[in-house]
Structures are given as structure tokens and as C-alpha cells.
Amino acid sequence: MFTLQTFDFCAFLILSFILAATYFRKMTRGKINQLFIFTLFVCIFSCFFDIVAQAFDQYKIPDYQTAQYICHALYLYFHNITPPLYLLYIIAQTDTFHKFGQKRAIVYFAICPSVFYAVIMILNTFNGMVFIITDCTYHRGWFMNVLYIMALLWCSAGIIYLIIYRRLFSASVLAGLLSIFPLLTVAVIIQIVDRSIRIEMFAISLALLFIAMFIQRPEALIDFNTGIYKFNAYAVDMRRNFSNQKNFDVIQINIANFLSIQEILNYESTNKLLRMTAHTISKIVKQSQTSAAMYYLDKGSYRVVIEQDYHDKTDFIAEAINAALKPKMPVNGMEVSLITYVCIVRCPEDISDFDTIMEFGKDLSKFHFTGKVLYASQMLDHSKYDLMSSLDKILNDAVINNKFEVYYQPIYSVNEGCFRSAEALIRLYDEKYGFISPEIFIPASEKSGAILKIGMYVFEEVCKFIASDEFRDLGLEYIEVNLSIMQCMQGGLAGDLIATMKKYGVTADQINLEITESADSQTQSIIAENLTALLNAGFTFSLDDFGTGYSNMQRMASLPLKIVKLDRTFVNFNDNSRLMIVVQNTVKMLKAMELEIVVEGLETAEMVEKYTLMNCNYIQGFFFSRPLPKAEFVEFIRKRNSHISAQETVQN
To answer: Which has the closest alpha carbon to 111: 85, 92, 91?
Structure first.
């Protein structure tokens, strides 16, 4: 059977459960967590005093009328400071304290309302404007309506604030933050209709439960091994910081030899090393008494983000971290040395956008290691990172407006002494940045999905070229076209390529498709279907970049290959006799498998002679020609092949 306090009892249990779970899940650090905990305590006190006050109202014991009054006053006090406190929590979620002034925001939305409502409760003892108790009976005063209006204003401010900064939140987070307002509105309406149903605290407890479930989620924010925030939280916070135009410092810490250490240590030992490193960083930050957030981004990368008010401590913290990570770390009987890059980034002075700070962080270990604290202001090539941040827009514009161009690099046939094929290569020119390296825009296009349109563009341009009269006069047998992994995973790839080829009257033997080992290593059935369909249509395949990484011979032997392209890493053996033996035996193995060999990256006559003596079939490299625009390529092949043809005519 329901009593007057039933909903309050339920609310008290829900709030207590949320508080216990918050501590159990270690969601106690940082402004957001601390404000959430403080809000929970305020609501628990409010709920407790409401339960006790209602008990006094119900039993009407004259000797406890003073206690009855105090409980009602404390309930109203804690209940009325909840809306401004929740507004403070919303501001913390948007991370816009700096727009009010870090300390003034707390004064505006925490201290001032708390003092105001405390004064109201004190004055009420003299004038009874909020409530009075006569003969142990509770009566509302005229000022109670004012308190409701003020609560409505606080709630309206919270809703408006969330609407203004809605782009900072996902749909689920925004819904969780807004949930308190409709729930509270329904509860107030119910209580106006029937004052005996005390449901306000229950509505608030449900809203806080939603927030605990959908927003205060440690699994989405905390790396449980290191105990600090993880990559997802860092990405969200960085985007929000830049969006809010905050001033802050980032100390980037990269363990450059982490992957090597990971290969030496077992899983548990690696995790222990990561925990020790995180503990060392956390201890230094804590001892500095600085407001800072710490993150672990994976693969030995840590970040410390320091608020503007503690800007003067950044150098000291970075130096302390750098010094603390220099000594060897004892891990399960082993002493591990860390090669640690520590770099200070001032935002927005050094970096003012999300993409650049993420790219710079990844590039940090590529700089010369000095063992000293580095400064982004001295290291940044802004043109490079400006390009990276604009790359998606540049690629999208290039796809829409056909700004790509296909270049061709001649491939020399050792046996025939002339050029019989070429590789089609994509190039991109931008009005602002000039020629953009494929090593930059190809990975970006693979991430964005633009590689699919780029790949089809290259294939169609090659088909147009092969179908032209000028191609027929060059004496070329075929053109090599690269297929990316993303293309191979695309349903209908084979049909699209075959349809394009037929459109221009090109035969499959005039195009050789280049794939990488990683394309065949994928287990998706769609890749196998595409390769089988293309093979059945008469296409031949070459294996690109053979020798980069760990080549799986069994898998390579199962591929329908005609050609294997030796990567340029095979070329640079110089005087290394052991590597020379590896190269010679690799060539012998491939020849025994009846595969044709293209050697890439040859730049000198000496290199050409060495691989010619090894009986390699084709040579591709700067010794003969760089990749050329189509018109220059046509002219180059005409001159070189016609010269050879003329020599053959004279000899005959």
C-alpha cells in the first residue's frame, strides 16, 4: 500500500544506488564527476528531509514542531538549489566555464543561489512567506509560487544552454541531459493536481539514473588498465575545447619504442608497464596541484591537458615527467628503458584545430630524439598540418570537379630491350598546396571512402588511353592499374571494371591489375568473388610491393599471379652480402614459380646491371623515367621505342 513517503523512499534508494555505483566505478575525478556527485548528495539530503518532514506532518507531534519546521526548511533549501546546481553540471558538460571566468561561474550558479535560498529560509522564520506550521500542520505561503517561478527560470536557462551547445553532444547524451526537464514538469503537474502525491524527488532520481546510465559511463571514458581517460574521451574533449575556443596546454608523451617493448614483454607485463607510467604521470600532476586531465591513447601515448589558469605550471610538469620516465623501469624482474618524447603544445597559439593536433601527436616520434622536452612552436611545419586538416575537403572537391590526373611510369623489358608496359599512377594538384603526395592523399582517401571513386576514375582514364589511336602506335602490350583493398572489398567491382572495359572496346589482356598481399589476406568472401570474376574475364594480376613486411609464401603461391613486383627495399642492399644472398635467392624462387619479375625503384646504371644479370624481366624506376603526364609519356615512348626499332631495322 502506498504511503505519502513511498515515492520519496524509492527516490532515496535510487539516488543512494547511483552514488554507490559512481564511487564503485571510480567516476570521482574531474569537474563533471565532482559536480554530479555533489548534485547526488544534495538530492539525497533533499529526499531525506522530505521523508522526515512528511512523517512529522502525518503524526503531528507537538513536541517536535520545531524539528518539523527545520526539516521542511532544509528540504526546501536543498530542493531549490538543485536547479542551479544542475545548470552548473550542464555548463561543465559543455566545458564553457572559461566564458564566464572559471571562478565566477561557480559564484553565479552555486554560491549565490545557495546563499540566496539560505537567506530566504532564515527570513521565513520571521514572516512565514514561504511556509508556516501551525498546530503541526504545514501551510504554504505566497512566496512558494515565486520559488516555483525561479525554478522554472533555472530550468529554462539549462534547456536554452543545451540548445545553444547541442552540436557538442551525441543524440543519446543530449537526450539524457534533457530528460530531467520533462520528468520534472510532469511531476510538478501531478503534485498541483494532487498535493498528497510527493513525486518530484522520484522524477529527479529517474533523470539522474538516466544520466548515470547514458552519460556518466566509465566504460566509454576510462581506460581500466591505466585508470585514466582513454582515446574516446580525449577526442571528445579536444573537439569541444577547439569548438569553444579555449586556451589550454597539452603535454604529449609518446613512448617511441613501445611496440618493441610489447614484443619482448608478455601481455600482463606490458599492461603493468603502462600502469606504472600512468601512475608516474598522475603523481606528478597531483603533486603540482594543477587542474589537468590525463589520457591514455593506446600504443604508449599519453596526454595531459592543462587548464589556462595553470598555464605557468606546464613547463615544470613536462620537465618533471620527462625526468621521471628516464630511469629504467623494473617490470617482473626486467629493467625496461623507455625512449620517451615529451612535447608541449600551446593551444590555440601553436595548434588551433582537432585534426592538426591529432596528426602532430602521431608524428611526434618521427622527430630527432634529444631527450629534452620539446616545444611544438619550434617543430611545427604549419603548411603540412594545414594541408592535413583540409585534405578531406580537397579530396571531395577533386572528385567532384575532376582535378585528378593520371600519370604513367614506363616499365622497361630487359629481354626485348624496349618499353612494353607502364604503370598508371594518380596525381593531385591543388591551387593552394601544389602537388600533393600520393603518400598523403591515398591513405586519407581510403579513410574517407573517396578511393572508390578515384580508383574507377583511374581505370576509366586508362581504358580511354588504351582505346586511343596514339596508344596503338606506341607498341605497348598493357598498362598496370592498382586496385586498393577498399576497391576489392566493394561489391560489384568486377562488374564495374568489365563494363567500363567493354564501353571503350578494351580487352582484358591490355590491362594488368596490381593487388597487394593484404588484399588477398582479407577473409571477406566478396574479395574472393571479385578476384575470381576478374580472373575469369581474362585479367592478369601482379603482386605489388613484394618484400614489404612478412610475405606469406603459401598465400602468394595460391594467388593467380603473372607478375611479382619487388619493392624498392630490395634495391638498397649496397654492400650487404647477406641481403644480396636474400635477393638472389628470392629472384630464383620466383623464376622457379614461372613468375615474371618487375624491379621497382632503380635509379642507377649499376643497379640496372645487377638485376639484369639476375635475369629479372622488367625494370621500373627513375633511371629510365619518372611518372609522366600522358602527353609527355606518349612522346617519351615514341622516341625510345622508335629509336630501338630503327636500330633493329639497321641491324637486319
So the answer is: 85
Let me know if 122 is exposed, middle or buried by CB neighbors in 10 A (0-12, 13-18, 19+).
exposed
State the virtual CA torsion across 411, 414, 417, 422 in degrees, nearest 10: -10
- Is the pTM higher than 0.85? no
In whole angstroms, give the CA distance from residue 106 to residue 113.
10
Kindly report the length of the chain: 652
d(CA 395, CA 389): 12
Question: 10 Å Cβ neighbour count for 624?
Answer: 17
**Strand-strand pairing, 301-307 and 248-255:** antiparallel
> Grid coordinates representing 216?
556518466
Buried b (16+ CB within 10 A) or exposed e, 442-481: bebbbeeebbbbbbbbbbbbbbbbbeeeebeebbbebbbb
* Amino acid found at 624: F
**Strand 229-230 and strand 131-134: pairing?**
unpaired
Please check whether residue 223 is in contact with residue 229, taking contact to mean a CB–CB distance below 8 angstroms.
yes
User: Of 218, 241, 259, which residue sits at a domain end?
Assistant: 218
Q: pLDDT tens across 232-266, in order? A: 889 989 999 998 888 999 999 999 999 888 888 88
Which helix (DSSP H) or strand (DSSP E) does residue 246 occupy?
none
pLDDT in tens, 68-80: 999 999 999 999 9
pLDDT tens, residue by residue, 217-239 = 766 788 888 988 899 889 989 99
- Grade residue 124 by pLDDT with cuts at 50, 70 and 90: very high
Same domain, 56 and 190: yes
Q: Cα separation of 241 and 267, whole Å?
A: 35
Regarding whether 71 and 17 lie in a shared domain, the answer is: yes
**CATH code for the domain in which residue 166 is found:** 1.20.1070
Q: How many other C-beta atoms are found inside a 10 Å radius of the C-beta of residue 622? A: 12
**Region 482-498: what's the mean pLDDT?**
87
Residue pair 202/11 in contact (Cβ under 8 Å)? The answer is: yes
Residue 205 has pLDDT above 70, yes or no: yes
> Does one domain contain both 81 and 181?
yes
CB atoms < 10 A from the CB of 424, how many?
A: 22
Q: Residue 308 pLDDT > 90, yes or no?
A: no
For residue 410, which amino acid is it?
P
Domain final residue, candidates 165, 199, 218: 218
- The mean-pLDDT minimum among 115-119, 407-411, 424-428, 591-595 falls in 591-595
Beta strands in 533-595 (DSSP E): 540-546, 561-566
Higher-pLDDT residue of 591, 380: 591
User: How many CB atoms within 10 Å of residue 341?
Assistant: 22
Per DSSP, 567 falls in state P
Q: How far apart are CA 43 and CA 80, in angstroms?
A: 10
- Positive or negative torsion for Cα 440, 445, 446, 448: positive
